Fold this protein.
Amino acid sequence: MDGFVAIYIFMLAAFTGYEVISRVPVILHTPLMSGSNFVHGVVLVGGMIALGQAETPLEQAIGFVAVLLGAANAAGGYVVTERMLAMFKAKEKN
Amino acid sequence: MAIKWLIDASYFFAAILFILGLKGMSSPVSARKGIVWAGVGMVLATVVTFLTPGMNNFALMIIAIAIGGALAWISGKKVAMTDMPQMVAIYNGMGGGAAAAIAAVEFARGEMHGMVVTLLATLGALIGAVSFAGSVVAWAKLQGVMKKAFRLPAQNGVNILLALVTVGVGAAIVIAPEIDSTLVGAFFILALVLGTVITLPIGGADMPVVISLFNAFTGLAVGFEGFVMGIPALIIAGIVVGAAGTLLTQLMAKAMNRPISNILFVPMAAAGGGEAVEGEQKEVGAMDAAAMMRYASKVIIVPGYGMAVAGAQHKVWEMTELLEEAGVEVSFAIHPVAGRMPGHMNVLLAEAGVPYDKIFDLEEINGDFPQADVALVIGANDVVNPSARTDKSSPIFGMPILNADMAQNVIVVKRGKGTGYSGIENALFYKDNTRLLYGSAQQAIGEVIQHVKALSV
């Protein structure tokens, strides 16, 4: 990837992250932390590609660990966030 | 090539879903939709990755996803709401570990081109490994596996030295013309030790801020590895989380009046003891406590983590309903750091069925305490300690507190006479208008309920 394009992506993403969170009420801090924890679970994709390109047993072993940990991050992050937010939803109906 | 286009378009779409999802999660109305959108993005990104040309090891991949995903899914479904913070910590640590492992695979393949790519891979590995080791320690502490804060002599010196050595080895890897596997191995070990040593001395009360910090770290590590592998979806998701997590960490640290540097380098207990408190604690029985609240016109409940640990939130809500039937106005006052993370107490109360409109933030309710006949403090301690306003030598001086001491009467539900989580003496417990109701929150509130019922017949 071209160096400057990468820096632009970095900068815009950083501003986006800052803006998205800046007006969040305190009651949602915990679910939001959990939700952002889920979003970086996309590291799973990187792990899959690393494992997909692995050749030696050592590379395969470390790649396997990367996918395992990434999948746990994504799946666990989703479940706990969803559980917390589900309770907020239920209250809104009342 | 059509496949390549499909994959890139899907990653792009996933990145948009992640951002919209996070945006949705910042309001209670759209929060549920937000996580579902982000979830769709995740599934999309994962599925198209299988189509990447030239990949091998699909069997290993599927086994790893099945094991990791299933274990995390089941543990996430089972965990109690009170234990949520350490679950977030451990899942976050796994993300950091995954980012570090990706870097390790790239080092092992030795196909990194250019110093910038090697630098980013090294940075991502360092941050990811620190986040992994630190999050595991944070989990162990909150889970109670590791009981005591463990402090080395000259802790800060050790931290700085270790950090310098680690960065030095990292720099050597970046500068070296070929990847040196001995250096890489030493680098990963150093980074893991660094993460552990930094986190060990941090006290339990500061842990949420640290978990949030590691969450931001993992985001950055994922973003850096995204650069190395040339996957924009990873870059965007990682950096967005890195920035959002940094802001969230600052908000939490501000709510606790503890700068992040203090949390990392100054242990709470060593920050000075504060003045000794004069007077004695005056006890009250469940029956009198019930009468005080039953015949009050306004009661403010201040719940703390102690209530949640005792699992008393359902009982507290039952008592609230009884009091309201008797015509008492009841509201809940939530300190920004009540529970183990900001917003944690709101989640716990929501679980018990307490509606939104009874729950108030510190700024909203602090002015109401002087008009309250009773402030009922359940399992909370430091967040109602008036020393934070008055005693300059107190370690918590300057922290915003709930002004429970300004209520006409204060009832404190407490297990025993000891000091709280932070070990700081609380002047509120010794005030003339304060009465202590000893017992576990579950049992004490249960008794109060019986007496309120008796009074209402």
